[in-house]
Amino acid sequence: MAIVVARNLDKTYDTGEVSVRALRDVSFAIDAGSVVSFIGPSGSGKTTLLNLIGCLDKPTAGEIRIDGTDVGSLDRKQSARFRGENIGFIFQDFNLVPILTVYENVEYPLIMVRDTPASERKELVRELLEAVGMADQQLKYPDQISGGQKQRVSIARALVTKPKLVLADEPTANLDHETAHLILALMKKIRTELKTTFVFSTHDPKIVGEAEVIYSIEDGVLIDRREKGNGCDA
Amino acid sequence: MHNILKIAVRNLTRYKRRTFLVATLIALGVMAVQVFVASSSSYKSLIISQITDAMLGQMQIHKKGYLVSVENVPMNLNLDQHGASIVEGILDSMPDIEACSPRIRLAGMISNFVETTNIRLYGISPEKEYRTVPLLPKRVIGGSSELKPGQILIPKLLAKGLGLKVGDEVVIIATNKEGSVNGRQFVVGGIVESAPGPGGRDGYIGISDAAELLRMDAPEISEYAIHLKSFDKLHAVYEQLAARLSKEVNAEGKARFEIHTWESLAPFANIAKMIDIMSIFVKILLIAIVLVSIMDVMIMSVYERTREIGTLSAIGTMPEKILAIFVSEGVLLGLLGVIIGNVLSLAAIYAIRFSKFTFSFGMKEGFILMPQMAMSDIVFVSLVVIGVSVIGSLQPALKASRTEPIKALRSV
Quick check: B319 and A84 CB within 8 A? Predict the structure, then answer.
């Protein structure tokens, strides 16, 4: 069953005198529980597409449905609520809150987004920190841990609310090759445990292989779909 | 709310130096206001009490039209026995009045048998007068304030000019309302120090002596001076008395009496008003300091944390919670400033009290400034600072809460 369905998506940025068409007539569907990657060179439209899926931006034309909701029609507050309830984000630069400890960063969405009771919070955070291997670092602040550790915390934060969909924009761009593979392996492991759908973008062909479904995008056009295992093009 | 405050506190400690500087600026502003208000209030209260409790009384009742002619000491505008009994009846029925004193005011000449000069006198009943203006006996710097029949309390400057001392004999000559000139011999019973304000250089004789000097069959009262149990009730009692007195009309249907608070009688009231206005301006200055400081630091904070705001928004934090985080930061900053400011103010005020700083007013020297911080001032200034902190942080906080996450995440 598809959790994300996009039909004829168009996105044009008007920057004064110049109009940039970032996406052109993009259609796709992502099955629930899958690990999907969008690959393409810089400026190809990967981030724009992830922003649309993540309800951070609205399409100029076309429709995008997440778990049946037309997210393009949501207003600012509805979008925020929808993101909090359904989507987890993993950022390229980790984007941890510097004033919060590792534990508090993971706990943040449960307090400020979900209003989860304290007793439940403790258990959820502990589980996730153990899953990403950061339980022993929970009292440290982001500036006291490495890039790979930050991304682990970022993954735990994205998953702590048990979202249906996790979006990761170039999640390994700031990590070395070995750490990048470890992070993606971790994402897949958690996906299996929590049955969460992972969608990530990358321009690094070495880590693309971790995805089950790979979409290639170039100049805002979806040009290819491959599934791992049968190797066939869509 | 606890978590929002926790985040706000962490953000304030994140930029320790900036927080310290802004809190210090607010604290200094608060201290300046509190010390100014406490000192000026102390100064004002001291002078007002000198004026009202040393000679004037807190309120005065006269026959209608007396005050506009007061410089002429109009004997024809004294209250007759009937009028005086009406006023006394009203005053006796007022529970907030501590004491009242009937006075006969007169202008005349004083002679030491060698020289003669002008003098203004109050004819008083010492017991009533000293209850109404309790600081008057302390003004008697030579002799006794007892003021027995036949005695006179001579103003210090006049005593000096005429070379008079306690026990000397003088002659007072005065004209009564019929125009006849009368004279009587008095013994100097005491020397009275000058006091600031109208009547501060007048002498005193007994009210019966004054009536005799002016050949009145019975004392005709120029004014009733009034002292209240609580000075804070001045205007409330004034309103009540004015209402009661306004019902008393003469044969022509016009008001028989007029009543004035000390503010209408002493020019210092204008200085007191100026002090109040200056206090308002100092408070406005504090508001400006707090507003500019908080706005500046919060605008900076929002600008620096744009990407962080984008992250919080992206992961689903509702705009009102982002707003609350930034407003809380502003309020906590203001609160920190106001707490430090109030503590510093208390220290500064106690330092002033301890130093026994003195000043002079008019001819009187040696007033000791004893500033006191009223709880109402602490509460008022604190609420103003916190309120202004909310206003100052609101605009940056609104900006933060309305930031589009996609734009915020793109910022460096």
Answer: no
Q: Which two tokens stand for residue A30?
A: 């992502």
Residue B83, Cβ neighbours under 10 Å: how many?
19
What digits encode the pLDDT tens for the residues A14-51? 877 788 888 999 899 998 888 899 988 888 888 889 99
Provide the domain count of chain B.
2
**What DSSP state is assigned to residue A117?**
-
**Chain A contact probe: residue of B315, B318, B401 with most A CBs at under 10 A:** B315
Residue of chain B minimizing CA distance to A159 = B315
What ipTM describes this predicted complex? 0.87
**Residue A30, CA distances (Å) to A196, B29, B251, B277, B318 in order:** 12, 60, 103, 71, 27
Q: Does B262 fall in a domain?
A: no
Residue B46 makes CB contacts below 8 A (sequence gap 6+) with B367, B369, B370
CB contact under 8 A, B319 and A88: no
C-alpha distance from residue B150 to each of A108, B159, B351, B356 (Å) = 90, 17, 49, 41
- In eight-state DSSP terms, residue B369 is P
Same domain, B249 and B345: no
| Distance separating alpha carbons of residues B167 and B67, to the nearest angstrom | 35
- Find the CB nearest B318 among A77, A99, A111: A77
Taking only the tens place, the pLDDT of each residue in B45-94 is 888 888 888 888 999 999 999 988 888 888 889 998 899 999 999 999 99
Instruction: Return d(Cα A233, Cα A231) in angstroms, integer.
Output: 7
**Sequence-ordered list of residues with C-beta below 8 angstroms from that of A79, at least 6 positions apart, any chain:** A55, A56, A71
- Set out the domains of chain A in order of their start, with CATH numbers: 2-227 (3.40.50.300)
